[in-house]
Amino acid sequence: MKRSPAWRARSITAACGRLEKPWGLTADISCCISPQQYEDLFLPPLIDTMRTVDHRLYHLDGTVALQHLDLLLSVPEIDAIQWVPGAGRRSHPAVGSADPAYPKAGKAVLVQTEAAEVAALLDCVSARGLCIATQCATQQEAETWWN
Description:
Blueprint: H1 5-16, E1 22-25, H2 35-50, E2 55-61, H3 69-73, E3 80-84, H4 93-98, H5 101-104, E4 108-112, H6 118-124, E5 130-133, H7 139-146
Parallel strand pairs: 1-2, 2-3, 3-4, 4-5
């Protein structure tokens, strides 16, 4: 069953306890522009949009997008940051290097990773405000991983 991005946002919000007006936002062009251009051109309309919804998740895609992380962590309208390493990359070193910036900034972080990488991720990242999305191929694999 193919699920829409809105479904993902609703699922994340449901995990937080409310299901009213969740929204995930991104500006993939941010990888192509400087932090100053991003702040001047993209941040104002992004903040305006975020003010219209209850739960605001910002999606950072790829290591180049991390150049905007400090700015995004300073935006009070952003509740959570989702970072994915980008196409062809499976590990999450930037989450570890950003820790403890996320919790200090009052932001939750959503990380998608392979089940086999969860233990290593937890070794380098604070669990405060952390939501890990992972999957297992079988129920047995999930039970082994969970225990």
